[in-house]
Structure formats: structure tokens, C-alpha cells
Specification:
about 280 residues; 2 domains; flat; mainly alpha; single chain
Length: about 280
């Protein structure tokens, strides 16, 4: 996800919706559609059917309801733009929170857009900067990577024994910590993820029970398992590097130990002074 593009398309969408009633039919329809599609695709991280449908519905229904009430139009536009991401949020309560944040943020963004649509350029800039931030409020709720959803869907479709490898790959994506790997290894890991995605898609396309189909599926499943195993080793390596670095950096331990020894010496000295005072009496 590109944050700058997300902010720009979010602010642009509400600017286009607020100016649509005063624009020509072509501009008032086409511009919100393009910006809504760009916003939804940016949220999804890649073009997909779900993101494109969500963006198109966001622009269309958002424009229609904006004419009734801008606050309602903003809520509808942002709810639908986030629809694809909402599906990737795990848990009903968390999903409800995600929807609530989208509706509230859309309502507030629409109110700002409508209130400052005719404001001077300085106020307009500030207002739409706030609108851009409001459009990202639902991102406070965590959602699965689209690749995780795709892998889990493929696992449920293909079933065992391949599903075990695919569920493992999905968990690796959820816990992915590759920032500690060197650049060359990181490039290889990302290339391996892309190869895994292509292999899974190829396996989903293979149908039939002939001898040739069986040989192809066996080959694809073996390669998928090998990719998942190598990605698992990379994840373990990244975790090991992080643990090793944490173990090497023991300055806090040394500081605490030194402070404890100093306090112990001070306590011993105080006891000795007290004992000497008692003996002197």
C-alpha cells in the first residue's frame, strides 16, 4: 500500500463528490469513478475484481446519496471503498469496528468537504488535508494481507494434503518479519513468494483425473511444498537474527547489574557504620 497515493486519492474522491453537483455530467461522473477505483485498488494493494467492484459502487452510490445528504454520501462512499478490506478483517466484532470507523470517517470527511467546498485556497487545503487523514482512519483496524486470503481460499478449495502447506504459508505471511534479512536474501524471499502465488494459481487451474493431469498436479504440489519450506526457513532465520541481536545488546543488563552492585555496597557500608556505632556505645 502506498500511503501518499492513498491520501491523495481519498482527498480527491471527496473533492470530486463535493464538486460533482456543480460540474458537467461527464466530469461529475467520470472523475469520482476514477478516484474511487484508484482509492479501492490502493487499499487492496493490487488490482483485483473485489477492489474494482468496490471502487465502482463507491463512486456510483456515493454520488447518488450525496445529492440526498452529503454526510450520507460520504459514509456510503467510504464504506464501499473499504468493502474489499472489510472482508479481510478477522472476527465479527473487529469487522463491525472497521465498518463503524469507515462510516464515521466518511460522514466527517463529507461534512468537511461540503462545508469548505467554496472556501479560500488556504482553508481548502487544510480542510482536504484533514479529509485525507480521515479517509485512512479505518486502517487503525488490522486486516489480513490479500495474499493470506487467497492462500486460505486455495487451501479450502484444494483440500489435503496440499492445504497444510498453504495454511502454513498463510501463517508465515501473517508473522512475516523480513526486515532483519540482508538485501540479497530479501530479494530471493520476495521472488519465492511471487513464484508460490503463480504455482498456486496454476494448481487451481488444473482439473481432470487423467495421467497427465496427475503428473502435473504432483509436480506443482511438490514445488509448492518446497517453496513453503524455504520460506519457513527464511522466517526462522529472520527470527534468529533478531533474537541474536537482542542477546548481543546486553547493555541494559550490565547497567542493572552495576546499579545492583552499587546499592549492595552502599547497604553493606550502612550496616557496618551502624554496627560500629552500636559497639562504640
Amino acid at each position: 500500500m502506498r500511503p501518499v497515493l492513498l491520501l491523495a486519492t481519498g482527498a480527491g474522491l471527496f473533492a470530486a463528490l463535493s464538486h460533482a453537483p456543480r460540474s458537467s455530467a461527464l466530469t461529475g461522473t467520470l472523475l469520482p469513478m476514477l478516484l474511487a477505483l484508484a482509492f479501492a485498488v490502493t487499499l487492496a494493494g493490487r488490482p483485483s475484481g473485489g477492489a474494482l467492484v468496490a471502487g465502482a459502487l463507491s463512486a456510483f452510490l456515493g454520488s447518488v446519496t450525496w445529492l440526498i445528504a452529503p454526510s450520507l454520501g460520504g459514509a456510503v462512499a467510504l464504506l464501499l471503498a473499504y468493502a474489499e478490506r472489510t472482508v479481510r478483517v478477522r472476527g465479527m466484532r473487529v469487522r463491525a469496528l472497521h465498518l463503524t470507523l469507515a462510516a464515521v470517517a466518511g460522514t466527517a470527511a463529507a461534512a468537511l468537504s461540503a462545508s469548505y467546498a467554496s472556501a479560500p485556497p488556504e482553508l481548502l487545503t487544510v480542510a482536504f488535508a484533514l479529509v485525507a487523514v480521515l479517509c485512512t482512519v479505518p486502517l487503525l483496524v488490522a486486516a489480513d494481507d490479500p495474499r493470506v486470503v487467497a492462500l486460505e481460499s486455495a487451501a479450502s478449495t484444494l483440500g489435503p494434503p496440499l492445504s497444510a502447506s498453504l495454511y502454513t504459508a498463510a501463517e508465515l505471511l501473517r508473522c512475516e518479519e523480513l526486515g532483519l534479512l540482508d538485501r540479497e536474501t530479501l530479494v530471493d524471499v520476495r521472488r519465492s513468494w511471487r513464484s508460490l502465488e503463480r504455482l498456486v494459481l496454476a494448481r487451481l487451474r488444473v482439473r481432470g483425473g487423467g495421467e497427465t493431469a496427475r503428473l502435473v498436479t504432483d509436480s506443482l504440489e511438490r514445488q509448492i511444498a518446497e517453496h513453503v519450506a524455504s520460506l519457513g526457513r527464511a522466517a526462522v532465520a529472520a527470527t534468529t537474527v533478531g533474537a541474536a541481536e537482542a542477546g548481543i545488546d546486553d547493555r541494559a543488563l550490565r547497567d542493572v547489574r552495576a546499579r545492583g552492585e552499587a546499592l549492595e555496597e552502599r547497604s553493606r557500608a550502612m550496616v557496618e557504620v551502624k554496627e560500629q556505632a552500636i559497639m562504640g556505645e
